[in-house]
Design a protein that fits this description.
By secondary structure, the chain is an alpha+beta fold. 21% of the residues lie in helices and 35% in strands. Strand 1 and strand 2 form a beta hairpin.
């Protein structure tokens, strides 16, 4: 698992695989936006591959929804 964080956008990405190739994350109804979270804190997006396997998690307003220790260890973008 690897985490990247863009402080200016307050966005983090949690990679559950070593890398995600261009076009590998496909939505077609498989990418999920948690609207309930967005109303309270931010937005969570789940990226899946064409087989329905979870590749990664994107957190918008990451400083509100992720633990500070995780963001401190994240690779800065």
């Amino acid at each position: 698992m690897r985490v990247t964080y863009d402080r200016s956008a307050d966005a983090a990405y949690i990679y559950l695989v070593d890398s995600i190739e261009p076009g590998e994350a496909v939505c077609n109804g498989r990418c999920v936006v948690d609207d309930q979270t967005r109303k309270i804190y931010g937005m969570i997006n789940l990226d899946f591959d064409r087989f329905g396997r979870l590749l990664g998690i994107e957190a918008i307003n990451a400083s509100l929804v992720l633990r500070p220790e995780l963001l401190q260890q994240a690779v800065r973008r």
